[in-house]
Every structure is written in C-alpha cells, then in structure tokens.
Amino acid sequence: MIFDYETLRIIWWVFLGLLLIGFSVMGGFDLGVGILLPFLGKTDTERRVIINSIGATWEGNQVWFVMAGGALFAAWPTAYAVSFSSFYFALLLALFALFLRPLGFDYRSKLTNKKWRDNWDRALFVGGFVPALIFGIAFGNLLKGIPFHLENDMRIVYFGDLRGLLNGFSLLVGLVSLSMFIMHGAVYLQMKTVGDINERAKKMVWIFSLSTMVLFAIAGYWITVLDGYHIVSEILPNGPSNPLAKFVKREPGLWLDNYGHLPGLMAVPVVAFVSALFTVIFSKFNRPGIAFVFSALVVTFVILTAGCSMFPFLIPSNMSANSSLTVWDASSSQTTLHLMFWVTIVFLPLIAFYTSWVFRVLRGKVTVELIHKNNHTLY
Amino acid sequence: MWYFSWILGVLLACSLGIINVLRLEAQEALAKENVAIDPLTQLLAKESLYERLQEKVDNSKRNGMPFSLIYLSLTAFKHANELPAHEMDTTVLDVVNSIKTDIRISLDIAARVGEDDFVLALPGASFDRAEIIASRIKRNILMNVKTPSNLPVDIKIGFAEYSHHTEVLSEELMMGINEVEALLNIAIANSFESSLA
Amino acid sequence: MISESVVELSRWQFAITSLYHFLFVPLTIGLSVLLAIMESTYVMTGREVYKDMTQFWGKLFGINFALGVTTGLTMEFQFGMNWSYFSHYVGDVFGAPLAIEGLMAFFMESTFVGLFFFGWDKLTKGQHLLITWLVALGSNLSALWILVANGWMQNPVGAEFNYETMRMEVTSFSALIFNPAAQVKFVHTVAAGYTTASAFVLGISAYYMLKGRDAAFSQRSYTIAAGFGLAAVLSVIVLGDESGYTDGEVQKAKLAAIEAEWHTEEPPAAFTVVGIPDQEAMETYHAIKIPWVLGLIGTRSIDTPIIGLSEILDNNRLRIHSGIKAYGLLQQLREGNRDEDVIADFEAIKKDLGYGLLLKRYTEQVVDATDEQIEMAVKYSIPEVAPLFWSFRVMVACGFISLFVFIAAVIVSSIRRCRVDWVLKLSLYAIPLPWIACEMGWFVAEFGRQPWTIAEVLPTFLSASSLSEWDIILSLSGYVVVYTIFLVIELFLMMKYIKLGPSSLHKRRYHFEVDERGL
C-alpha cells in the first residue's frame, strides 16, 4: 500500500471527476448530435449522414457513462446508494430516454417505411435531450443539497420528490448542461459533415456557445447566494468512512470558500468562458477540429467548476446536514481504493489508446454520397 | 483452475467448429474432383448430370421455385449435312462457347450426354422463361456459329419445367420412371416437336 | 423497517429486469465467438461465403446486442435505485468487480463493435479479424466480472464486517477473484451462452436447408454451429455438475433445497428425479428416486453425506442465537463503547451477525426476540424448496435434450448436404431450449440464495431502498410496458431478417435475389 487513505481519497475524487468529464466530453457530443438530428437533417439521407457521423463510435462513448456509475459504486458506494435512490424518478426518466438510443441507432434504417424512421428520429432526439437535461438537474441538486437522512445503521431515508428536484437553480444548471452538450455536438457535426449540414451546424455552434456562456454566468452568480456547506468538526482524512461522525454548517455563499483558500481556482470558470469564446472563433474560421478541442475544454471546466466549488462535499443533505457525504467519509476502504487505483491506471491509458485508434480509422467526412454508396451497410 | 480451463475450453471449442467446417470444405473439394467430365468440352458427363439434377429436383421441392431443363441436339444437323468427325468437334466447341457467352452465369449444370447432345439446367426458370432462353440460344447459334465448311448451325432444342403440378410428369412417375429421367424425356420429345424460331 | 410489500415489489422488479436482460446476453456472449470463428475461417480459406456468414449473422448479432445494452443499463442503475442499503452495506466489495467490468470489458466490446460493423472497407482482413475477436473477448470478460460479483453474493469470501463503517469491507481481492463459486459460475454461464448461440445458428440454418435455400451458406453455418455447440453443451453439463459440487461445499442450504433433501440421508444419497416437495411437512410425496446418484455426483465420494435441510435448520438456530448476541454487541459499539472486551467478543462472533439480522423481520430491536420469533426466523432461513426443485429439473432436462440435438447435428453435418430432415426439424424446434435453461438457471441461482442477498450476511428484506410502494409500482409497470414494446419490435426485426436470410446483404448471390441467376 503505497498511498495513504487521504491521498487515495483525493485521487479517487479526481478519478470520479475525470470519468464524469470523460463522459461529458465523449458522450456529450453524441447527446448533442441526437438533439440536433431533427433540426439539422431535413431529408432522410441528411439524417442518415448525421446518424452515421456518430454511428460507429457512440456506443464506446456511452461506456464512459456506465463507467462513471461503476466507479461511483466502487469508490463511493454510499454516495452511489444515496444519489441513485434519491434521484429515483429523475433517473428512471433518464434511463428510459437512454433506452431509445441503442434501438434507435441500430433499428432506424433497417426498414424504409417513413413513419418508422421519423418515429425513431424523434426517439433519438428524446434520447439526447432528456439525459442532457437531467444530468444538469442532478448536478444542480447536488449543489443545493438534497433532503436525505442517514440513520444509525446507515439506512438511507429520502424525504424529497421529483417536483422538489425541479427547483429553479437546478433547472438553470440543467439548461447549462443542455446548452453545452448541444454546442459540443454542433462543433462535432461541423467537423464531420460538409455542405448544408455543415452550414447549419456552424450556426448552432454560435447560438449555443453564447447561451452556454450566459447561462453559466447566471448560475455562477446564483451560487454566490446559494447555501453552501462546510465541515466544522475535526476532519480525519485517514479515518474510516463514517459520515455520521461529523458536524456540518450550512450558510449562504459557503460554496465560494474554496476559492477563498485557493485563489488560483478562480481560473477554472474563467477558462470555461474563454474556451467558449475560442470555440465560436475557430468555428467561424472553419477550423472545427480546433473548435472541438475548445468545446471539450468548455465542458471540462464547467464540470470542474462545480466540483471545485463543492469539494470536499459529494452529496450535501439540506435536511440533516450532518448526514452529508464528503470525500473523507463516503469512500470505500483503503484496500478497495488502492486496488481500483492500479486497475484504473493500467486500463484508462489503454482505453484512450484504442479509442483514439478507432476514431483515426473512422476519420473523414460523412457525406450524402457515402450514404448512397453504402446504402445497406450504414445506419 | 477454472479460469485456465475456460481459455483452453474456448480454444478447443473454436477448433472443433473450424475443423468441422474445414472437413466439409475438403469433402466438397474431393467430390468436385471426382466428378466425371467430358474431356473435349469440359462439361459434365452423363453420370454426373443425373446426380446433380436429382439434387436440383429435391431442392425445388423444398423451396417451391421452378426449375427447367434445356436439351440441345446437333445429331440431326450432323446427319443431314454428313459432317466428318473432326469438323464436328470444332463445331461442338463453338456451339458450347456460344451458349456460355449467351448465358452469362457459370453453367454449373451443363452436360454433354451424347456425342452431339447437351443438357443445361436453369434453376429458378419457369416454363416461359425457359422458352425465351431456348429460342435465344437457337437463334444466336444459327446466326453466329459456322462449321469449318461455313455452314450455319441449326440445332434442335427442347425444354421442360419441373414443377410438381406437371401432369405429364406424374404420368411418367406412375410408370416408375424417376423424375429426372421423365423431365429429360419431355425435353427431348419437345425438341422434335417444337418449331422454335 | 421497510414494508414487506416494498421488498416484494423490489424483488419482482429485479427478477423481471434481470431475466429480461438475460434473454439477450447469452446470445451476445456466444454469437460473438461464433462470428470470430466464421471470420477466422474466412481469413484462413479466403472463401467469400465465410465473409457473408460473418456479416449476416453479424446483422442478427447487432439486433440482439442493442437490447442487451439497453437492458444492461437498467441493471447498473438498479442496485443503487432499488437496493440502496445493499449498495452501501457491500458496495466496498461488490462495486469493484462492476467497475472492473466497465474498464476491462465494456470499453473494449463497445468501442470495437462499431468498427466490426463499419470497418470492413477501412481495415485489412487481419485487423478486422482481430477486432471481432476483441469484441468476443470483451463480452466474455464482462461475464467474468459480473459473475465474480454474483459469486461473492453466494459465497462471501475475502471480506469482513467493519462496525465503524457499518459495512462489509474487502480483506483479500485474490480470495474474491478466485472464489470457487465465482470461477465455476463464470465457466458454466459462458458455456451456456455458447450453447445458446450455437442452437440459434443451428436452428436457423436448418430452417434454410429445410426450405432448400442457400445450401452452401447454411450448410457451413450449420456445421460450424454443430461442432462448437457440441463442445459447448458438453461443457455446460459438466460444469453444471461442478456447480452442484461447489454448492455442496459452500452453499449447502441451496443444494439441499434444490434436491429436496429434507433430512441427511445415509451416504451416498439417492437422487429424486420427480416428486411433490412439501415445505411444511418437510417431505417429498410420490418421489421417484435413483439410489446413490446424488451422493456420487454431489460429493464425488461414497461416504460424505449431503447435509439435509432439517440439520441445516438446527445449525441455523444456533447461529441465530449467536447472531442475537453479536447484534447486541454491535449496538454497544455503535453507541461509542470502545471497551477492548466488547470489541474482542464482537469480532469473535460477527460472522453470525447476518443470522441475527434475520430477526429484524419480526422485531426491530433483535435482542428482545421471543422464542416464537426465533422459530419463525429459523424457518425463514432456508429458501422455498418446490420452485427450486422444479426449475432445476427443467434446466437439466433442457440441457440433456440439447446435448442429443447437437450430437445428431454433428453426425448429420458430416453427411453431404446435411439432408436428414428429422434432425433439421429437431434443430429448428430446439432453439428455445437453451433460453429456457438459462432463465431457469438464474432462477435457481438467485432464489436458492434466499432469504439472503449476501449469503449468511445480509437478508434480502433489509437490502431494499426505503421507497414507497407507489414508487416501485410505477417503475415496475414502466419497465414491463417499455420492455414488452421493445421485445415486440426486436422480434419483428429479427424475424424479418431471418426470413430474408443472407439476401439481406444485397450481394446478389443469395435466395431472393437470385431466382433467375442472371439469365
């Protein structure tokens, strides 16, 4: 065991963030493309172009999402249990929307019937829109804290409902996430298509980069007045994971605490803004590849902002603050974190390697001619 | 340990599947080599024809698709013009080439059943389609193929369709003749009776 | 305490969603390997027909794979959504194999499956073949890790209870990975997947041959499936036997329940082929028994007895008493008592804590349990015998019938053109058998572990999330409705493509395209 418990916990907080960011960067543009599908594709062939731009790679990208859930379960099991049981209906909605994607991609073009294809296009839209929105709503609620309580035997009792989750701030964060995924998807489409679709995508990049910046700014201002959380009892970063052994205070504006301690952190939201600007600039100058890098940075730094604001809290409870789950008391045992660290260190680079190889093999534009040539083999 | 045994087991199972199918390939290759071929034209010889036609008939029964035979004869032409043997050989080859270019598929069932008689199988062809093809073959040979002594070749051509509704077929079947024979008989009979243009 | 109806509904939902998921998984596991075999033959011989086979069966694989992924998402979510106490209590142990499943298997499988479908023109023969093998490896490895997790639920080795965190924590990962229950389950389950896929390809190829279609294509598919499938079904049966033997060592109550061994018999015990088990009377009526068989295959000896249920119940009673003490000590520890003796006493008997938890069903305090309540807990501590007894026998019957089918298929595939009609018909009708066996098998595995989610550690009724009845009624109905619609759509598409056969590849050399063969 070469790391102490405290270091492992921080490493795993970083890894969790990495996986969430990984999903947002890799899977986010797939969601965005799904949302843009009915609007950027006016004919059946155009829609097939859009679908095939992500057809071969969307499934691999979705695994980042599955992985984030799996890593949450493995490294932060109590947080996994609290978040998944509390967000029950929101997750159910997201799940049902996600169901539509594998079927939509594989089944849509297998029949030539127009109604069949139109309905699956609608399904793919829903499959992008709903998860993108709920992802943000979930994050928003984490920042606000959710009404749960841990009993003495660690049984989780949740006192909220779906309506409670749809509060103002969370809906705003939902719109931020929706907007940034659409921007990201639009840049990807600009990269992979030509002609009309390319032009339409460029317009979308403009619109949604702007909206992301505006909404992110509003959310940023709102956070300054939102209730934040802070641990007031002694923190034992190497102690066993017992969330019931601490005291937490809750006050407006506490989420800015970390920025006070580490002023360098202010750079994080700034990078997000600047990246959004560069995304638009490079898109306008027809360098979508570079624009894509910047749009990925937008996604990354928006999520990092949320994470940095909340650290060390993972899931604050606005009902029973002492039950809040933090990095120091919701993690798995040192043994598990240690093993999972090594497994991750070995496999993540490998995954990055073969994923980039696959994208390289599939590089190049998807055009209307390509669809016609491969009418029966492409989606 | 079971994890190792899984790796071994999968490799074994995959090998079994591959070996089984490679054996099938070898079997088929052997069967192909052993098939009797007419040396001059490289078409099937009479014995192989019967085997193959029986399979086609069986298949037709299962999938309900029609299947036709064409019978071609140069015998009458040869006798009428008293052509010597070596001339006939060349003529026969030319006729076969003409058929091959005409029907653009590889003739997997085309046989030389007599010195100057041939049988072609047309899987999937109905009676009408067979008629069209037979006419075309005869016309093309008449127009394009000449003997060494520059005579246009006029062949006798007849055809028959296998379908289990064919009444004539069932008459012959009742007499104990098998389907393939019966079909051939009909095609041969047609070649004398018909006056295809 | 969670209401019993919430627990029951949660159980129904998990059962339905996982049985549904497992309609698609075995085909994915097995067909991916069959595709790799077909493509290997293509690369080895260079004959186009094998490429066509890979692409056609690959289309069917894709239709099936989509629903496998869809229903798999549900499973990942469901542990946290509906079984949150379980997720907290054992997440330290259980979460790791699931995460490794994602890193090692899902990424590989999902990343390369796209290239499998779309990379034919962009890769060399060798590269594409490698991709197909990696997809197969990925799907098989995901079975490995999920079964390491499930194996731990059946036989929780390598972990211990920590009173400070109120959960099970890992003590040895190698014990977890090399858990005999996990190992045998893994090999048995993937073998079942291979059998399922082979039966699928076998039966559909037989259909084409019965219809006199695409002879060269279907013969070769049949032949590969027959060879691979025979090896698979033999393995699955042998490994089934091995599973039984492992149960005899680490899950005695499950084995006794499956075989309706009410009392410990004089070894070697007789095997009950059929009968009517009665849980109240602890007897099997109208039993037809074969002497010696159970003892021989279950213990592989003639003098080791198979422990009967009544003996197990007596043992459980003792453990429940010990568990009550453990619970009492735990309460003290949770209240802050850190006296050395208390800690030592607890550590000594904490392995019986699970049995103490069984009493929570009757009294929240546990330590105040009456003798009557203890007796109820004892009765509750073993699974219901009759459903297990029958589902196990159905599974085994399906297995042996499939064995016969594959033997016949291998023999027939060596006769030129496989023209033995009754075997072809049998191959066609035998397609559902492995599916039935797979579902029965999972039922035996999970129902046989009741009343525990983690055997002898955490009872099922404590593992569920504290949701309301309506929450689950809504989600359960949602799943049922949505899944049924999806299944109808999937079957419709599958049937359509099966009927089209390889002509759906539009290569202009198969049945519906070539009725006139260019004439």
List the helices and strands and how they pair.
The complex is a heterotrimer of chains A (379), B (197) and C (519).
Chain A: H1 5-26, H2 28-40, H3 44-55, H4 58-75, H5 77-86, H6 88-107, H7 114-144, E1 148-150, E2 156-158, H8 162-165, H9 168-192, H10 195-225, E3 227-231, E4 248-252, H11 257-261, H12 267-284, H13 288-310, E5 313-315, E6 325-326, H14 334-361, H15 368-373
Antiparallel strand pairs in A: 1-2, 3-4, 5-6
Helix pairs in contact in A: 1-4, 1-13, 1-14, 2-3, 2-7, 2-9, 4-5, 6-7, 7-9, 9-10, 9-13, 10-12, 12-13
Chain B: H1 2-33, H2 46-63, E1 67-73, H3 75-81, H4 85-102, E2 110-112, E3 117-123, H5 127-144, E4 156-162, H6 167-174, H7 179-193
Antiparallel strand pairs in B: 1-3, 1-4, 2-3
Helix pairs in contact in B: 4-5, 6-7
Chain C: H1 4-45, H2 48-82, H3 84-118, H4 125-154, E1 159-162, E2 167-170, H5 173-177, H6 180-210, H7 215-250, H8 252-258, E3 271-278, E4 283-290, H9 293-299, H10 309-334, H11 340-349, H12 353-357, H13 371-380, H14 385-413, H15 421-429, H16 432-447, E5 452-454, E6 458-459, H17 460-463, H18 469-500
Antiparallel strand pairs in C: 1-2, 3-4, 5-6
Helix pairs in contact in C: 1-2, 1-4, 1-6, 1-16, 1-18, 2-3, 2-7, 2-18, 3-4, 4-6, 6-7, 6-15, 6-16, 7-8, 7-14, 10-11, 10-13, 14-15, 14-16
Describe the structure.
The complex is a heterotrimer of chains A (379), B (197) and C (519). Chain A has one domain (5-373): Up-down Bundle (Formate dehydrogenase/DMSO reductase fold), CATH 1.20.1630.10. By secondary structure, chain A is mainly α. The longest helix of chain A is centred in the middle third of the chain and has 31 residues, at 114-144. Chain A starts with a helix and ends in a 6-residue tail after the last helix. In chain A, the strands form three sheets. A two-stranded antiparallel sheet of chain A has the order 1-2. In chain A, strands 3-4 form a two-stranded antiparallel ribbon. Chain A has a two-stranded antiparallel sheet with strand order 5-6. Chain A is 70% helix and 6% strand. Chain B folds into two domains: 1-34; 46-193, Reverse transcriptase/Diguanylate cyclase domain (Alpha-Beta Plaits, 2-Layer Sandwich), CATH 3.30.70. In chain B, 59% of the residues lie in helices and 12% in strands. Chain B has a four-stranded antiparallel sheet with strand order 2-3-1-4, with helices on both faces. In chain B, strand 2 (110-112) and strand 3 form a beta hairpin. In chain B, helix 4 (85-102) crosses helix 5 and helix 6 (167-174) crosses helix 7. Chain B starts with a helix and ends with a helix. Chain C has 519 residues and is mainly α. Chain C has two domains: 4-251 and 383-507, no CATH class; 309-380, no CATH class. Chain C has 18 helices and six strands. Chain C has helices at residues 4-45, 48-82, 84-118, 125-154, 173-177, 180-210, 215-250, 252-258, 293-299, 309-334, 340-349, 353-357, 371-380, 385-413, 421-429, 432-447, 460-463, 469-500, and strands spanning 159-162, 167-170, 271-278, 283-290, 452-454, 458-459. In chain C, the strands form three sheets. Chain C has a two-stranded antiparallel ribbon with strand order 1-2. In chain C, strand 3 and strand 4 (283-290) form a beta hairpin. Chain C is globular and about 80 Å long. Classes of the chains: A mainly alpha (379), B alpha+beta (197), C mainly alpha (519). Chains in contact: A-C, B-C. Chains B and C meet through helix 1 and helix 2 of B and helix 1, helix 6 and helix 7 of C.
